[in-house]
Amino acid sequence: MAKLYFNFSTMNAGKSTVLLQASHNYRERGMQTYLLTAQVDGRAGHGRVASRIGIGEAADTFAPGDNLFDRLAKRLDQGAVACVFIDEAQFLEPEQVWDLARAVDDLGVPVMCYGLRVDFRGELFPGSATLLALADELREVRTICHCGRKATMVVRKDAAGRALRDGAQVQIGGNETYLSLCRRHWREAVGDRPRSAVGGDQTRWISTDPTE
Questions:
Q1: pLDDT tens for each residue of the chain, 212 residues long
Q2: Which residue among 84, 127, 199, 207 is least crowded, i.e. fewest CB within 10 A of its CB?
Q3: Binding site annotation covers 12?
Q4: Is 88 tagged catalytic?
Q5: What are the structural domain ranges in the chain?
Q6: Which positions bind ATP (predicted)?
């Protein structure tokens, strides 16, 4: 029975490597796969899924507003597909996640999505939130913080290497921009402190800069 899978991680956990290996396993057995990646992320080149360890493969791209159910239906009309692989799934729109769920249910094709769970502010991406709600199976691709604990969060750094607290949710970047951390060290990096009970302070972010 076809299922919708969400393989989630933080940055630099090797999710694209896992995707490419899984696709290779199908093709090694004579079964075709179909790869899609976000048009907005062109770090590996347009229409390409690539890993930091140097392997990569051509892929079609998706953009906001694309009807992915129609896309998959047209691809299946061209020939059998054993599995669909979606890279950078955090950039899916909620309705596109529903498109994928409908493709699983109505077209009978397995769909495996790979993406980030939360952004640099510790907030869910809309596409990831919908995948967490709809996926038949959830799988975590793990990496570690510098302290050895499991990394579950990511910070976005400015040019001076300081952790940013605000900004657009989507900003494409690699190791020069993002760093994966455990929650404890993410909180230290962004200056998160417990809310004060005195005066009912509801401020989440408390500056650690003595000049402010």
A1: 899 999 998 877 788 889 999 999 999 999 999 999 998 865 656 778 877 767 778 899 999 999 999 999 999 999 999 999 999 999 999 999 999 999 999 999 999 999 999 988 888 999 999 999 999 999 998 888 999 999 998 888 777 677 776 665 655 555 567 888 999 999 988 888 887 765 555 445 444 443 33
A2: 199
A3: yes
A4: yes
A5: 4-141
A6: 9-16, 87-90
Closest CA to 55 of 82, 35, 84, 71: 35
State if pTM tops 0.85.
no
Is 16 assigned to a binding site? Answer: yes
CATH 2.40.128.280 given to domain 4-141 = no
Residue among 28, 57, 88, 123 flagged as catalytic? 88
